[in-house]
Amino acid sequence: MIEKIKKILNNNKKINAWKINYSEIKSCELFYVLKKLEINRATQDVRCDVTIYHDFDKYRGSSTIVIEPFMDENEMVKEIDKAVYRASFVKDEYYDIPSKSDDEMINISSNFSDKSLNEWAQLITDAVFEADVYKNGWINSTEIFLYDTKNIFINSNGVFHEYKKYSGMIEVIPTWSKNKEEFELYKNYEFSSIDLKRITAEVNEILLQSRDRSEAVKLPKNVDAKVLLSGRDINSFFSYFANQLQYATVYQKMSMFELNKSCQGKSLKGDKLTLTMSPFVLESSSSSPVDFDGIVLKNEQIIKDGICQKYWGNQRFGYYLKQEKPTGMIPNMIVDGGTKSLSEMKKEPYLECVSYSGLQVDPFTGYVGGEVRLAYYFDGEKTYPVTGLSISGDLEKIKENMFFSKEIISRKNYSGPSHIEVPCFKIL
Amino acid sequence: MGYSSFLKSRKELAKELVKELLHDYKYVSLLGSHIEGETVMVNKVSTAIGSSFDAQCGFVLKIYNGASYSEYSFKDIDSNVKDFAEKIKKEITLSTYLSKKMVNVGIMEDKPHIEKFSRPDTGKKYTTEELVKVCTSLRDEMLAGDKLVINAVSVIGQVIVSKMFISEHKDLEQYYTWTNGYLMCVMRDKDKMSMERSGVCYDNMEKVINELPSKVKHTIDITKKMLNAKHITPGEYDIICTPSISGLIAHEAFGHGVEMDMFVKNRAQAKNFIGQYVASPLVTMHDGGKAYNSVASYFFDDDGILAKDTVIIEKGILKKGISDSLSALQLGTIPTGNGRRESYKRKAYSRMTNTFFAPGSDKLDDMIKSIKHGYMLFETNNGMEDPKNWGIQCVAEYGIEIIDGKLTENYVSPVVMSGYVPDLLKSISMVSDDLEVIGAGQCGKGYKEWVRVSDGGPYLKARVKLG
Fold it and tell me: Of the four listed, A101, A168, B182, B376, which is most buried by Cβ atoms within 10 Å?
């Protein structure tokens, strides 16, 4: 299929450059209600995105189409002609596509290939339910998704990459019963390598948090305490800083940050932020050795000690910003640990937020807000679970005074401090 | 354009495959999906013209495995149907260990039904070049609209949906289209930034293109207002929800809570409140692919069940929920035509479609006049459901302060509504005689499984906690 497409692309005189992103995806999926399997699913799918570049006047037009595996050569020609037609109306400033480089791809290590997806699914089932041992708490429902993807990238400049990617996701809804009332929380655990003990531990943790939610009370009014952010959405907090330094944000003059200047204000009293974009973070299901333009990805430190070091992003906007070697779209963030241990953070009154309905961070304005479903409040004497509150703040105002924990976690597309101490969030 | 020629070409093979698998299984159904369409996006530095974001083409089989159901998603039907059926059997067969964990449910009803449905775009047809011209002109108008505008985006996208459902006794086809147009304006004033959106959507691209220019001035004005919008002082207020926010409440506060796969899992409080007052007697709420002509209006769902208009709340009393076929089977209820998949690659869940409050008899002016101090809330930002504990979080893009029965020039943004769902719904004291349903939304189940939905309603007066 790929050879047929290449031939058509190379024979079309209106096409000045092209790229093909091809994937073969297999999945195994299990859906449980309590400990009973409600449905099992398998998928076998193919996805082939073809982007063509058409140069005219001073512009470079592009368009992406999907070539389906069942198309014959005539149908493929028709689709590619359609892409050329569309690209002829795209008056984008010219940019190069990546050329062959000697950069070596980082090999994403994973134990997925040790067993079949079905075998892993069975072992993961057992690992999840191993934590389901409590009298008043149980796992209400579980969804397990395992993916095995073979990827091929080719472009007209001779770039060729072939790599495997594995990813998994477990969604667990724990429930805890107290006085005939039931309380639940939500857990979404993503991974690229399977650690059965970690799965059991993650499920156990969320079960115990659902117990705490059942015991949670309303937060007293007018609480004056620092907020400790933790939990699954902590990555979104740092994505604001990463987004501000993206080529596209900078080129479109939507960034407030400048290179070699502080991104944490002039009178920084808190921890200095060091942020590295990374293609590979242990367990991140987003990890990838190359991006969608075929750029081989590597670690790029974009902020060091609160000072902006480097812009990052995709080939096109990197070219516009005259970057000699654009970094590519790097999927993960690594944040250095801070100066305070968790126990130090917890010496004074605090509100530790662990479960949100969604922690929203506006990527442009830095507004942060969210409904907190479970938090722990330390009033100076005792610690107890609280619920039914919202937090909000403005990152631009709090970035000078935040502290990061020394303790590090790895979760979703993030490896970094397990807790962020924020002194001036509004608590409602 | 018309019903997918690809699906047409695979129909006989689809029937053969179902028939072949029926030798070994008591229920087999096959859904074929082919979603096409073009999206044109123009902003200050880029133009993108490509397939619709929803574009997909493939099949999913649902098979009764003797206890419950197994599914297999794939790209195309192999012409060697016998061998292909053997391969599928292997792919969906579980180990003995996992098979023993299967819940026992019955066999889905498969009443004979052969029908073809169609809702084509009857308006003028546009070339890609014409769409680019429209989007470029709208972008330029916004860029020229104010010196603080640093970026402007205009998008027109159409989805063209063809689906086929084949089982032993069913042979259904549907074809329909939907078009969305969006504008987004970004302004910067020194270190302050703001961004606002407007949208128009119809089953007719011509109407979208005719109406979208009328939104340009409003989008610019609101973006500018947002530059200097203040944060609201947290507290409990009388509010007036515009139809966008009424829809957000209908969707988040109650819609998710009556998705009946949540009943199967005992994850929804609503299950225990059927027949009881959960809202003010002024409140009636609908959902259904047939309840309103909007983005989620289809003829049959992804389980092959005909779309319906389900009255969820009638005059404050919770009447019934919405369900996919597997949930209905387990609950012993009749499926409501709400089984929806993100794509042929994903499972079907009970999902909302077009969800809205019915209009009442109050006049908007009277509603504003009735408020001593409060806010009128505009434009959905996001929301999150909590069907088990009936917590609510809905975020409006902005609010305008009402003082002594009059709208002021005091803008606040963003505005977070939070509280307990029945408290909010029971606090509704006035319902306007308007009805607007907005088909610009995407809805997830938890944090995934995105499908297009619409929501809306009249203007509602309520009392809630704002932050």
Answer: A168
